[in-house]
Q: What sequence folds into this?
């Protein structure tokens, strides 16, 4: 048993058991309205979408900063995807949001490193700009994806795109210099800099890579939801937290060596919780309560308090 606890699969087994536990509890409480095979596939479908954003955020959060412009990036990239798809079909639907998401991420990284202030403040401020751009692009109207271009909204193509993103993320983290430096900077930025790592360069690259994955998420988001309404006054912020929770699952279980798997299973757990409480008759706003509580719990799991350190 001790050897198993020290193995790299111990954390994954815990997460799987957690998912089964939540499914079992809600299935017992609401056998008619929760947990049928069709509904489980629906839960997993949404979880896969959020997990892609969680993978992108992982590159940033593992180093310390945050990106709170993910929601605005999703909205803007989805709007751009709809517009491009009208002229170039699936090529526009895929390429345009990837470029848009990546450029937004690059902009975030450059502004963050140039201003040298909190990443939270930088990305929240930039979110207002991205929301304004989305409104300008749509004239405040709803952007609707053509019915003939929604293949990524359902099985099997959503699986193909999602798992391609997971594989790319895993490959970058495990087999590239960038992945190695991401962990090095997150472990000790000062030591990494003294070893010759260009910290500024790799932080900008982390934001850029995050934007790329957000672009992929926006493809699945618009394909699944079929429409996107531009946001204002930081209304897009609500889209930040579900992917972020997946990221924190990855951070909490990265010591077992499978952060991407932890992100995906973590998002499935969150999806089961959301839909379980809805099946119990709780108002849809209960999602905000669950999100808040789960976020606090996961952050507590991933944060190691240092005695005598002032908490900012």
A:
């Amino acid at each position: 048993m001790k050897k198993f606890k020290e193995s790299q699969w111990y954390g994954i087994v815990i997460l799987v058991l957690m998912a089964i536990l939540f499914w079992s509890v809600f299935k017992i409480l609401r056998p008619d309205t929760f947990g049928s095979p069709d509904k489980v596939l629906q839960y997993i479908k949404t979880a896969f979408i959020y997990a892609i954003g969680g993978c992108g955020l992982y590159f940033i959060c593992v180093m310390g900063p945050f990106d709170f412009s993910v929601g605005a990036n999703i909205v803007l990239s989805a709007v751009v995807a709809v517009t491009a798809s009208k002229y170039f079909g699936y090529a526009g639907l895929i390429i345009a949001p990837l470029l848009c998401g990546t450029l937004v991420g690059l902009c975030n990284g450059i502004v963050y490193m140039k201003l040298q202030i909190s990443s939270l403040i930088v990305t929240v401020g930039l979110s207002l700009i991205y929301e304004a751009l989305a409104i300008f692009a749509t004239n405040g109207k709803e952007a609707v994806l053509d019915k003939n271009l929604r293949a990524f909204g359902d099985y099997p193509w959503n699986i193909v795109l999602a798992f391609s993103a997971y594989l790319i993320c895993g490959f970058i983290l495990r087999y590239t210099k960038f992945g190695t430096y991401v962990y090095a900077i997150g472990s000790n930025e000062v030591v990494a800099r003294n070893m010759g790592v260009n910290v500024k360069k790799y932080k900008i690259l982390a934001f850029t890579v995050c934007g790329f994955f957000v672009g992929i998420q926006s493809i699945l988001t618009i394909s699944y939801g079929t429409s996107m309404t531009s946001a204002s006054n930081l209304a897009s912020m609500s889209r930040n937290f579900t992917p972020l929770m997946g990221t924190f699952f990855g951070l909490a279980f990265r010591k077992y060596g499978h952060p991407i798997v932890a992100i995906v299973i973590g998002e499935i757990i969150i999806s089961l919780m959301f839909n379980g409480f809805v099946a119990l008759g709780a108002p849809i706003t209960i999602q905000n309560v669950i999100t808040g509580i789960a976020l606090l719990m996961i952050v507590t799991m991933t944060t190691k308090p240092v005695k005598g350190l002032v908490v900012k």
